[in-house]
């Protein structure tokens, strides 16, 4: 592979045949744009359109347009919706104001993370739960079971919903042009209805790249028109279509976790360094509460850490982390040669004793020792 075609942690080389994979409603648009596709979470999705580096730099310097229609959208409605979600998830969703969003998690009874979610409160009795594509069916089933009862209705509208994201410094100007309305008053992790390309959409100021950005939820019938309108609005702003490969390098630079790497059923929010999302102050006896209380009060043997390399060979998920004596003291969960910073970066779990910033360690990259230094997260923070 060339540097512009580096396999990322989101890229899947094996799995179901293309005939068995789901296709985004925008698939034909991506084909026309010359996208290269990959199998991901049961879908065939654009991994890149041109070069990974060009797409990555476009998001950092201007703007990128992403199709995220593989994500799951599950609606929870009714007078008991807030109480039901407080019992199902670790976050305090009853305290969430209408029009705002919250990052939270669905945990197993033992505290393991079944999925990390973004939950929007669209109205007093209406929530939208956005799940990772690979976990959508599990999340829908768990919510159906945990939230069952009078006063709650669960509807999985993933098949009828498309999701398009604009990310980057120019994203606000592009969205304002596309909608014909100002967005400066829309706060981070907030959402509101809007009209785009003649279609009613939910416009959210959220994202997964470390940049300012917006996500647009629209019915599948309006997806192509919304994509085309945003593309036209991006003319002169440097907007380019972007695939999954650069989305992964962007999120890694921003120190954001990926389920299956930094999060998973074998890891609690506390083990992943995200215990802050668990809200013990709420009244609900949520699933996993007792196990998570024990995790909170027990120091973790291994903790999340950022690693900064000095060479050109990037650590990858699964590579062992070693101390100066050659003893294994951790494992890499995600790694890449950072396009923005110009050196290797990785997220890892390492022994607490060697987790301090500045600690010199080694990663075994396919049998070759590569020196790294422990650094704080995130690796990249966008300029104010």
TrEMBL record:
EC class name: transferase
Family to which this protein belongs: Belongs to the GcvT family.
Ranges of residues in domain GCVT N-terminal: 26-282
Species in which this protein is naturally found: Pseudonocardia kongjuensis
InterPro entries, per the entry: GcvT, GcvT/YgfZ/DmdA, GcvT/YgfZ_C, GcvT_bac, GcvT_C, GCVT_N, TrmE/GcvT-like
Subunit structure: The glycine cleavage system is composed of four proteins: P, T, L and H.
EC number: 2.1.2.10
Keyword field: Aminotransferase, Transferase
Pfam families registered for this protein in UniProt: GCV_T, GCV_T_C
Gene3D superfamilies in the record: Aminomethyltransferase beta-barrel domains, Aminomethyltransferase fragment, Probable tRNA modification gtpase trme, domain 1
Chain positions covered by the region annotation Disordered: 297-325
Name of this protein: Aminomethyltransferase
Annotated ranges, domain Aminomethyltransferase C-terminal: 308-380
The protein's role, per its UniProt record: The glycine cleavage system catalyzes the degradation of glycine.
Taxonomic placement: Bacteria, Bacillati, Actinomycetota, Actinomycetes, Pseudonocardiales
PANTHER family from the UniProt entry: AMINOMETHYLTRANSFERASE (PTHR43757), AMINOMETHYLTRANSFERASE, MITOCHONDRIAL (PTHR43757:SF2)
Entries under HAMAP family matching the protein: GcvT
Recorded catalytic activity of this chain's protein: N(6)-[(R)-S(8)-aminomethyldihydrolipoyl]-L-lysyl-[protein] + (6S)-5,6,7,8-tetrahydrofolate = N(6)-[(R)-dihydrolipoyl]-L-lysyl-[protein] + (6R)-5,10-methylene-5,6,7,8-tetrahydrofolate + NH4(+)
């Amino acid at each position: 592979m060339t540097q512009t075609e580096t396999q990322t942690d989101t890229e899947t080389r094996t799995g179901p045949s293309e005939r068995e994979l789901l296709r985004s409603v925008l698939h034909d648009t991506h084909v026309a744009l010359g996208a290269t596709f990959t199998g991901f979470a049961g879908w065939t999705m654009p991994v890149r359109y041109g070069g990974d580096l060009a797409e990555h730099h476009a998001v950092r310097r201007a703007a990128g347009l992403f199709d995220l229609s593989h994500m799951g959208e599950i609606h929870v409605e009714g007078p008991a919706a807030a109480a039901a979600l407080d019992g199902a998830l670790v976050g305090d969703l009853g305290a969430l104001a209408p029009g705002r969003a919250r990052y939270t998690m669905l945990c197993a009874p033992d505290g393991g993370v079944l999925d990390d979610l973004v939950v929007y409160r669209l109205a007093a009795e209406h929530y939208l739960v956005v799940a990772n594509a690979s976990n959508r069916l599990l999340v829908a089933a768990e919510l159906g079971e945990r939230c069952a009862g009078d006063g709650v209705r669960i509807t999985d509208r993933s098949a009828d919903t498309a999701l398009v994201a604009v990310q980057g410094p120019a994203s606000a100007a592009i969205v304002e042009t596309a909608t014909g309305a100002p967005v400066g008053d829309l706060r981070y992790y907030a959402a509101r209805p809007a009209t785009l390309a003649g279609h009613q959409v939910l416009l959210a100021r959220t994202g997964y790249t470390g940049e300012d950005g917006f996500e647009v939820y629209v019915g599948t019938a309006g997806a192509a028109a919304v994509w085309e309108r945003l593309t036209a609005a991006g003319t002169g702003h440097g907007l380019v279509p972007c695939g999954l490969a650069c989305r992964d390098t962007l999120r890694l630079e921003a120190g954001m976790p990926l389920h299956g790497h930094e999060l998973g059923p074998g890891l609690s929010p506390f083990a992943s360094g995200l215990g802050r999302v668990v809200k013990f102050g709420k009244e609900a006896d949520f699933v996993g509460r007792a196990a998570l209380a024990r995790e909170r009060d027990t120091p973790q043997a291994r903790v999340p850490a950022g690693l900064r390399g000095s060479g050109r060979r990037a650590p990858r998920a699964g590579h062992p982390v070693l101390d100066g004596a050659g003893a294994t003291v951790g494992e890499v969960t995600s790694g890449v040669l950072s396009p923005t910073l110009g050196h290797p970066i990785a997220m890892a779990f390492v022994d607490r004793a060697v987790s301090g910033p500045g600690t010199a360690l080694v990663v075994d990259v396919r049998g070759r020792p590569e020196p790294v230094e422990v650094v704080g997260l995130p690796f990249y923070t966008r300029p104010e």
